[in-house]
Amino acid sequence: MTAIRTTILLVLFMLVVACSQEPEEVHYGSDECAHCKMMITDDRFASQIVTDKGKAIKFDAIECMAVYHRNHDSELKDAKLWVSNYEKPGQWLEASKAQYVKSEVVNSPMGESLLAFPSAEVANEHTSEKPGELLKWSKVSEIKTNM
Q1: Out of 5, 41, 84, 146, which residue is the most buried by the measure of CB atoms under 10 Å away?
Q2: In a domain, 62, yes or no
Q3: Which Pfam families does UniProt cross-reference here (predicted)?
């Protein structure tokens, strides 16, 4: 009976982990952007959408993710969107909760120069050193690219 219970718990655990909407590791230099097809190389600008089934769709820039999400909105309505913390690459932020700077001096892979920060305070600190426009996800999600 204990073996059956252990097996059932293990299967349930694997199902929960398999459907996790946590961000997946990005393999810089080999993963390709789902929108523009460029290689993802800069960890400061990476982003990803994780579907309700746990599939990660990766992007080389925040604007690529925004356009892709808008173009596939109906099939991604329950997905989670993640952006890399510009100042702490490798730390993922929920796109809807992050604060953004459209920088006047920092260039991103696709040229929109969108930087993600964990709070308005941190974003404001960045703009005091390097000029840029503060944005929320509602504005970022409307950005259009040439791709």
Answers
A1: 84
A2: yes
A3: NosL (PF05573)
Q: How far apart are the first and last CA of the chain?
A: 58
Q: What is the pTM of this model?
A: 0.84
77 class by beta-carbon count within 10 Å (0-12 exposed, 13-18 middle, 19+ buried): exposed
Whole-Å CA distances, 17 to 4, 8, 14? 20, 14, 5
Q: How many domains does the chain have?
A: 1
100-119 tens-digit pLDDT: 999 999 999 999 999 999 99
Residue 6: inside a domain: no
- Does any domain span residue 136? yes
Q: Is residue 68 helix, strand or coil?
A: helix
Answer yes or no: is 5 within a domain.
Answer: no
12: pLDDT strictly greater than 70: no
Domain of 38 in residue numbering reads as: 19-140
Residue 93 to residues 23, 41, 44, Cα–Cα distance (Å): 9, 19, 12
| Residues contacting residue 33 through CB under 8 Å, at least 6 positions apart | 39, 40, 58, 59, 60, 61, 64
* Residues 46/116, Cβ–Cβ less than 8 Å: no
